[in-house]
Structure formats: C-alpha cells, structure tokens
Design goal:
This protein is 20% helix and 38% strand. The protein is an alpha+beta fold and 199 residues long.
C-alpha cells in the first residue's frame, strides 16, 4: 500500500508539478503537531472578537475558531484557551457577543489578540453595551451575534463554548478572513445588509 501511495504521489507531481502537489507523505509522530499547524493555516475562516462583561469588568479576545453549530435552534461555538484572561469572566457572565470583524478591522483583530495591550482593548475601539450588558464593537463589523452560554466542554488546553443565539445584527461590512497566519480581504456577500433579528 505504501509503495502504491508513493507511485501515486509521483504521478500527481508529474501531472501538476512539484509546487501544485506537496506533502503526500504522512507526518511522523515527532512532527505531527507542526504539520497540523500548517494544515490549519490553510483552513480559511472569518475573524471574530468575543466580548463579555460583568458590571464594569469587561473582557474580549480574538477568535478564528468561531462557527455555527446548529440552525434549529440557532447555536454557535468557539474554542477558548483555559488560561485566557476572559475565561472566568465569561462563565460568570453567562453571556457573550460574537463580533464578526469587517475587512478593514485587521487592526482590531490584532489589538484583541495582543496580551501586551490587554488594558487598551476597550479604550482603542468604539463600543457600547447591549440591553443585557454585553459590550459590542460599533464600527465596520460584518455582524454581531448575542448569545447566552448553553454549555461547554473542557478538553486539553482549550474549552469549547456553545452559545444559544438570542439576537443577530448584520452590519454593512464584508468579512475579514484569516488564512495562512495572516488576514485577507476581498470576499463579497450578496444581500442582507443591515438586517437584525431576535428579542
């Protein structure tokens, strides 16, 4: 089987060229984590800032792991590091907002990802609180989704948080995309700008 795979890899290289088909060999156990990171860099996706608050205490962080889980009922999920500064506050609050960033907000993504600027996160961006007390970003976002914490699963270094969607607001911006350890723009969506739903 292995020889057949090698012969197949050689054929693909002849058909498509070395640059078009790379990495046909499986990673060895020693470098699996490194190769996995490279593979995930190719998994392009939107960029969100997760925000939460309890009283005057606010926290937020950049997430590229956010996604939908179910439409009926509407639920979302994201991964959060177990050592994240927002970890305890988010579960104390029991609610959060997903601010899907617009294509001009790469600087906002960098701000909420930078531990050294943690105390600047809500000072260097425009934000306001919802009726339930969750801070949301106010400029150039693609969408804002307000959620309550439904459940969570702690696994290894991270916790998967599942949120029940309570309100959705669509902005006018096109989404910022994260791929290959950098930000990209240029995705165009049709229709739906400015819509909102929920309580």
């Amino acid at each position: 089987m292995r020889n057949r795979e090698k012969r197949g890899g050689g054929l693909l290289r002849r058909l498509f060229g070395n640059d078009s088909f790379q990495g046909e060999e499986d990673a060895s156990p020693g470098d699996l984590a490194d190769v996995f990171k490279l593979a995930m860099r190719r998994n392009a996706g939107s960029v969100a800032v997760i925000t939460t608050a309890v009283g005057k205490k606010m926290a937020g962080f950049t997430s590229t792991s956010f996604d939908s889980l179910s439409v009926d009922p509407p639920t979302v999920f994201f991964g959060m590091g177990n050592e994240a500064s927002a970890y305890d506050l988010l579960f104390e609050a029991g609610q959060f907002a997903v601010n899907i960033l617009g294509e001009t907000q790469a600087d906002v993504a960098a701000l909420f990802a930078d531990k050294a600027r943690r105390d600047r996160r809500f000072k260097d961006v425009a934000w306001s609180k919802t009726a339930s007390g969750v801070p949301t970003l106010q400029t150039a976002t693609a969408a804002t989704i307000e959620c309550r914490v439904h459940s969570h699963l702690r696994a290894f270094t991270h916790t998967i948080v599942i949120g029940a969607v309570e309100k959705v607001r669509l902005g006018g911006a096109e989404p910022l995309i994260y791929v290959n350890a950098g930000y990209a723009r240029g995705v165009r969506l049709a229709g739906g700008d400015g819509q909102s739903a929920g309580a």
